[in-house]
């Protein structure tokens, strides 16, 4: 893309320079043509010379309009220099006529200056108007986006309340079904169809219970319980939880601490949930035999955790919807993991960003503010 942009800039600059040269040539040609008319016409035809003299104002006006004050003055000076020899030649025996012509030479630059000032002012006002129009368009677009976000937030809020109510009502029957299945499993013989079907039912009940828990976590999030803790300790716990999943997917988890991660004021359990959600997505996206990198660092008062996978990356049409609740590209998934993670990060005063990795895959960047030095929670 670089060479194409450079070439387009060069072409644009060459076109502009060509227009400037053409205009100056046109101005000089016009001045020359008027001067030729003066010198080719006999002094006896004074009325023609009066007309030719006024023709000088045409290139002066154009020069001022095209190039502003400088263009108007330069063209006026050129017109005066072209006309001065004619005055000396024809006005030598007519002092009043010569005086009026010399006075005209003073009017040339005055006209060029005045029209140039008007042209420069007009250009300045045009640029201000264009900037104002762009700013107004940007503000209008942002207002429309904010309006859409508010409408979307209202819809999601209503949906969240409905989901929370349903999830709460579903949990009680689920608990009863789970208890009944445990009793059935305790009484059936291993290897029988009853044992197989009760095991399948128990697995599905567990999955449904997990799904309900995710709905509740999004619809009615718990307020963070802040305390200062080591980010390293949180990542260690995440790695321990992810180890079985990574082994099943044949993914090697690599850790890179360029700088020792600082102490962060956070809710360790919630940040653990965020890193776990992001890293689990990376494991599920990466091909077998690939690596998942977890990098930590600190920059300008912010602690960072980067989770880098070697998956296919994020499609452009999905990028803007990654953090939408219930949006997922997985066959089995609720689409709430990143939505809950983003809400947790916002409550911590941080953020979560998703970008394409330079060599393929995805980088999810978790950013947390670093507090002033203080005691660390030992737990």
Describe the 3D structure:
The protein is of the alpha+beta class. It folds into three domains: 2-139, no CATH class; 152-219, Helix Hairpins; 227-369, Histidine kinase-like ATPase, C-terminal domain (Heat Shock Protein 90, 2-Layer Sandwich). The protein is built from nine helices and seven strands, in the order H-H-H-H-H-E-H-E-E-H-E-E-H-H-E-E. The strands form two sheets. A five-stranded mixed sheet has the order 2-4-5-7-6. Strand 4 (291-299) and strand 5 (302-309) form a beta hairpin. Helix 1 runs antiparallel to helix 2, helix 6 packs parallel to helix 7 (268-285) and helix 7 (268-285) packs antiparallel against helix 9.
